[in-house]
Amino acid sequence: MKYIEKLHYITHDIPHLSHIEQAQQACEAGAKWIQYRSLSKSDEELLQDINAIAEICDDWGTTLIVTDHVHLNGKADIQGFHIEDMDADFIKLRKLVGHDITLGGSANTVDNLIRLVKEGADYAGYGPFAETETKPNNYAHLGIEGYQHVVKELKAQAIGIPVLAVGGIKTYDVEALMQTGIYGIAVSGAINFADDFIEAYQDFYTLVKEST
Questions:
Q1: pLDDT, mean of each 10-residue run, the chain (212 residues)
Q2: Closest-CA residue to 75 (of 104, 46, 40)
Q3: Closest among 94, 101, 49 to 74, alpha carbons compared
Q4: Which residues contact 140 (CB under 8 A, 6 or more apart)?
Q5: 168: annotated binding-site residue?
Q6: Structural domains in the chain?
Q7: Where does Mg(2+) bind (predicted)?
Q8: Is 167 labelled a binding residue?
Q9: Is 84 labelled as part of a ligand binding site?
């Protein structure tokens, strides 16, 4: 079973900080898992970012995951991919990237999660917890009850996969979320738009650690 960090930090296309600057600050704050999420760049631009971020992550011992862009596997020091397409064929993806690469997927129903498990995903981002500007969508907000339900369902079916809450999570949500029994959380906007990036990351990290 692959190591999955309990706090995933996700970079984002924002005007005031480049992805490289986001990654640098996250690593300085102690991040051990960075998901590079850029859906607006050419392959050349992506690789420029990824190579620079990979060097930063290597210096800090941080895992680098890339959102989608599986075709870049082998072209940079990428430890894994997070696939946002909930209809993606993970059996095919696993054959494509091999068994050493970490593969995570997005889900918003128990059925989605079960399929990810059956097809060999290493972890799942489950959401949205609440309103989020980072990844706008029309899915119903799960709230605390949604995570209580999914943990109960997975236990009842003896299905094990690290499930991370994602989508509009604030520091004051962390304790209640972790108490549902989920594995961890993924955060982007609440850190990227905080007055103090590093302090915000460390606040989330402390809350996740204390709730584990």
A1: 94 95 98 96 97 98 98 96 96 96 96 94 96 72 95 93 96 97 97 96 96 84
A2: 46
A3: 101
A4: none
A5: yes
A6: 7-211 (3.20.20.70)
A7: 68, 87
A8: no
A9: no
